[in-house]
UniProtKB/TrEMBL annotation:
Organism: Pinus radiata (Monterey pine)
TM spans (from-to): 6-28
Compartments where located: Membrane
Name the UniProt record assigns to this protein: Aquaporin
Membrane disposition: Multi-pass membrane protein
Principal localisation: membrane
Keyword terms of this UniProt record: Membrane, Transmembrane, Transmembrane helix, Transport
Length: 53
């Protein structure tokens, strides 16, 4: 018959991945800068759009 001996990895991996992803996201986003300063530093991406020659 069918034996599902290794099915636990398919059950545990998505949950563990979501938890680790959320923790790493929070660690990366932990900064002393205010949100206003973060958005200003990211504005250089908008200025380097397709108008660059």
């Amino acid at each position: 018959g069918n034996k599902y001996t290794s099915i636990w990895i398919y059950m545990v991996a998505p949950i563990l991945g979501a938890i680790l992803g959320a923790l790493s996201y929070n660690m990366i986003r932990l900064t002393d800068k205010p949100v206003r300063e973060i958005t200003q530093t990211g504005s250089f991406l908008k200025s380097q759009g397709p108008s660059r020659s």
